[in-house]
Amino acid sequence: MGSPELVSNEKSLKQSVMIVSAFAAFLTPFLGSAVNLALPAIGKDLHANAISLSWIISSFILASAIFLLPFGRLGDIIGRKKVFMYGIILFTISTFLIVFSWDITSLILFRILQGFSSAMIFGTSLAIITSVFPQGERGRAMGINITAVYLGLSTGPVIGGFLTEALGWRSIFAFLVPLGLVSIYLIKKKIKTEWAEAKGEQFDLKGSLIYGIALSAFIYGFSKLPSLFGWICLLSGILLAAVFLFFENRTEHPVFDIRLILRNRVFAFSGLAALIHYSATSATGFFISLYLQYLKGLDARSAGLIMISQPVAMALLSPMAGRLSDRINPGVIASVGMGLTGTGLVLLCFITVTTPLYILVILLIIMGVGFGLFSSPNSNAIMSSVDKRHLGIASGVVGTMRMVGQMMSMGVAMMLIALYIGKQTINPATYPGLISAIKTGFIIFSILSVLGIFASLARNNKPAGT
Predict the structure, then answer these.
(1) How many independent structural domains does the chain possess?
(2) Which CATH number belongs to the domain containing residue 288 in this structure?
């Protein structure tokens, strides 16, 4: 038993980390869901076609995916709090700059900077939580953190829709600047501890560069399919990924220790399940936003009220799922969640222009429940399966699987829009092509979700970390 003062300090640290990490976790998903809803308004204001609009989402995801793993490793070496705080600062600056975007190119460039800063935040946040909360408390903490993510997703469409209708799409970004400043204040005021279990080890710059180029080629190539150039980039990315793994296996202090995959079944299959899950679900919001505003003729605010049903279900389920994962094998809970998500996706394959809105709400809720049951238990399984010196890498892997999955999902969406609509703006003449793209997308995502169930069940039956 520690002294009362020590116990009080430890409790205060836990509360501070929970507040700050949850607050930061809210920012990025709020922005993502709000921007999804504002895409038609942005397209009209900046005269952007459907492909350019999709790059507003994809550029952020790509930049974030490339740097998540390196920043997770850098946090292990120089300090997780330091990387986390600088990430919040840069995120706030880039968000402020977006308010003054003068064309679609400048907006996409600022979104890349925003994605870079997001990698600093999410490459370290789960590692900080795992450093502070022991097993038995960790699942609950992650459940609260992921609830903050889903609250961001929930309020994004509502607040974003209101701001877009009342003040224009730029007001969404202006709204986040003071929230970023509050986050910076909380970090400096409330968190005095630093975590750097790999302090003194060398940062693997060469491996990080190979990794970044490989991931960029793969994801960019995926977004350009089915063109020949897309296939060349995709195959180049896969070859470079093989080079990266070969190089990392011979590096003393790698940016990614491949033994985590080769010798840790829970880590490997939990990561794969996360990749598949996000690949199967992330473009859903993009498709549903276009469906509601173009095909159903709803304004941004009304579409937001319908889309909120999914993240609300996620937010309600995540704390419970996190607590359960402290007592029950997280892989079992996550597999049930994956199954429910797949059920919702299969049913979405049958939507048409005349589908009643209440049916769509029910399907979004089913997917939200599945997502809520999957995320925090799966993250708990990953973070609890590694030792402390690899927490940053594990946190980076969680974020990377999410971002790569989101990018692949958006890649599928962009490819389908290119096939069915081309570079035309979305208008009544292209509506038949739009509904075909949406339905084909949901069919592909349904198939992926079935594969994800098998990946989730492939973990061993032992609790994570054993």
Answers:
(1) 2
(2) 1.20.1250.20
Domain match, 234 and 260 both: no
Decide if 48 contacts 101 (C-beta within 8 A). no
Encoded amino acid at 25, one letter: A
**Domain span holding position 153:** 13-192+255-457
Selection from 9-18, 57-66, 398-407 with the highest mean pLDDT: 57-66
pTM: 0.75
Closest CA to 268 of 441, 401, 73: 401
C-alpha distances (whole Å) from 93 to each of 90, 184, 410 are 5, 12, 26
Asked whether residue 418 falls in the same domain as residue 345, the answer is: yes
**Tens of pLDDT, residues 342-395:** 999 999 999 888 889 999 999 999 998 898 888 878 887 887 777 776 777 777
Same domain, 296 and 178: yes
The candidate with the shortest Cα–Cα distance to 259, out of 131, 390, 381, 377, is 390
CA distance 385 to 264: 8
User: Does one domain contain both 391 and 354?
Assistant: yes
Q: Which segments of 249-329 does DSSP mark as H helices, in order?
A: 259-262, 265-281, 284-290, 300-307, 309-327
Classify 11 as helix, strand or coil.
helix
Give the 3-state secondary structure of residue 425. coil
Task: Note whether 284 and 297 are same-domain residues.
Answer: yes
- Cα end-to-end distance, the chain, whole Å: 26
What is the spatial distance between Cα 24 and Cα 1, in angstroms, rounded to a whole number? Answer: 33
Please name the residues in contact with 106: beta carbons below 8 A apart, sequence gap of 6 or more.
Answer: none
Residue-level pLDDT at 345: 92
Q: Where are the beta strands (DSSP E) in 210-251?
A: none
pLDDT tens digits for range 286-301? 888 888 888 888 887 7
